[in-house]
Amino acid sequence: MKALVLAAGYATRLRPLTDDRAKPLLPVAGRPIVDWIVDRITEVEDVDEVHVVTNARFAPDLEHWARSRRGVRVHDDGTTSNETRLGAIGDIAFVADREGWDGEDLLVIAGDNLFDFSLPDYVDFWREKDGSAIAVYEHPVRELVREYSVVELDRDDRVVGFEEKPEKPDSNLISIATYIYHRSHLSLLHAYLVDGHPPDQPGHFIAWLYSRAPVYGYRFSGEWLDIGDRTQLLEADNRYRRRSGLPERDEYVVE
């Protein structure tokens, strides 16, 4: 299994913090966000390669960071602005083509997701199924659910409904940006893109895929933090600072 961390966005909602720094390199409790993610990935024995995809603006910084993480490879997608970005799905296809991942299973995680559930348990769940898998979470704040992908599962945890950012969500069960693509489904990315579907938010591909191939939802509990704005970044920083025995802060500052 290969692992890919998505780090090619421009994080416009976090400017000016992200004017000259990739969001996954923003520190949480003194360590880059992407560091915490790679820690989780390395717990999965099935993963034999870890890759990070970023853009031309931040590639040198990610490559510098990767020198401290043995075996992590960084890919520059060549884009230089939010207007020219490939999008998350475009970046997955870009690296898959570059690396020749036909016939490979792929774990994909957004570079702004922090969580404490077990990735090995998630992979074990996926291996018991015959398809791809998404991690799903019962969001406690109903008014925030419309900002995510709302999921419906059947009794076998197979996805039977998936709606990206619904105005009136039917439930609080959401998909987070942590996916396992079955080797036979990875090639369908090209069919999806060739048909002119949106190349950005990875949930769009799942919304297209689940009616064509089996996709299953792994229900997890525990902590999950989506770092989309400065308030969420401060909350994540303070939660991880508490865990690390560091003093909490009233305002997020890059030290």
Labels describing this entry:
single chain, 25% strand, 255 residues
In sequence order, what are the helices and strands, one letter per element?
A: EEEHEHEHEEHEEEEHHHEEH
Q: Biggest β-sheet: count, sense, barrel?
A: 9 strands, mixed
* Oligomeric assembly: single chain
N-to-C span: 36 Å
Compute the CA-based radius of gyration: 17 Å
For the residues shown, what is the average pLDDT? 91
Query: What's the architecture, going by CATH?
Result: Alpha-Beta Complex
Q: How would you describe this structure to a colleague?
A:
- The chain is α/β, with parallel strands linked by helices and 255 residues long.
- It is globular, with a radius of gyration of 17 Å.
- It has helices at residues 33-41, 59-66, 88-99, 119-128, 183-186, 188-194, 203-209, 230-243, and strands spanning 2-6, 27-28, 31-32, 49-54, 72-76, 106-110, 113-115, 132-138, 149-153, 159-164, 173-181, 215-219, 224-226.
- It has a single domain (2-243), classed as Spore Coat Polysaccharide Biosynthesis Protein SpsA, Chain A (Alpha-Beta Complex), CATH 3.90.550.
- The chain contains eight helices and 13 strands.
- The mean pLDDT is 91.
